[in-house]
Amino acid sequence: MSPPLRVLKMRIAIDAMGGDYAPVEQVRGAIDAAKFDNIEVILVGKKDEINRELANYNVKGLPISVVNAPDVITMDEHPAFALRKKRGASIAVAMRLVKERAVDGVVALGNTGAAMTAALIGLGRIPGIERPAIGCPLPNNNGFSLLVDAGANANCKPHHLLYFGIMGTIYMQMTVGIHNPSVGLVNIGEEPSKGSEFYVASYKMLKESNLNFIGNIEGRDVPTGKVDVIVCDGFVGNIILKFAEGMGATIFDMLKKEIKDKPIAKLGGALVKPSLKSIKTRLDPSEYGGVSLLGVDGVCVIGHGNSKAKAVRNAIRVACQSAEKDIVGMIKDYISKMNVGDGKGDK
Question: Cα angle at 245 between 241 and 251, to 5 degrees?
């Protein structure tokens, strides 16, 4: 009797040559995603290297394949110049697979600039979106908030932040199931008049939109879950993200030192160890795997360059989830129905 057919969720391509541990960790993460998450994974990169790594595992019957890409873009190369010169770069080939609808999404690790540039060149922007943005989940007591933009755009105009709020709202609606996500603008105070002209104008545009905009939020509100979507420019957003990652690691290092140095604390540490482990897991970036590049015309998830197999698997899962929920299609539909022209309300 023949075994039952596997009904695969989605086909996700991964740049197997990007990141600090390529292709070793990409292969391990792809195997886990294929085995445990029922996702078909296409490893894109130098075929011989990838196949040598795959040969270390029993992958018979797993939905894993390899697409050859002879070139690699390194961390020290200028993304735009390198992509023009290296048409066979693994990240470029992976993006073309999405464009050609051969796969449902792509995961890129390592050179964030190269991934973003390749996405813009290979996938293009969603009509009406000037600036694609990185949507990054930040854990809080309620689950997580989505930080948009987490680093794609250092210089923005007010209408860009409006669109960040729109894309973040749709993402939270579709992936978390929040009917009307709350949106907050990161500022130095809650009053509408706070901040520079840029922030005052951004506040006005968000307030006049159909979004569930609750107003300005301050830095202390970011980790509390006060809002579902945290809107800011990429300069501020990247600082928030890196600070949160560093602070989380520092707090746990301090706790470990206190428990180690004080005998009485060791007893208490043993009692709360399961809870601390659970919290550490929630704060671990590898649990989320990667961040979504919102606003490009295809599913693109970007991960840390130092990602290990666990993060790779979870990044593949995030890409699969975004494709299943049709985040790109929902953003397209919303933007096409907006009555604000091209969104350049501050020209």
Answer: 140
The enclosing domain of 59 has a CATH number of 3.40.718.10
Residue 10 corresponds to which tokens in the numbers above? 């989605």
CA distances from 4 to 1, 7, 31 (A): 9, 9, 20
Instruction: Look up residue 12 and give its amino acid.
Output: I
Same domain, 300 and 264: no
Domain count, the chain: 2
Spatial neighbors of 107 by CB under 8 A, at least 6 apart, are: 12, 13, 14, 15, 290, 301, 302, 303, 312, 315, 316, 319
Residue-wise pLDDT for 113-170, tens only, equals 899 999 999 999 999 999 999 999 999 888 899 999 999 999 999 999 999 999 999 9
**Residue 235, C-beta contacts closer than 8 angstroms, at least 6 positions apart:** 154, 155
pTM for this entry: 0.89
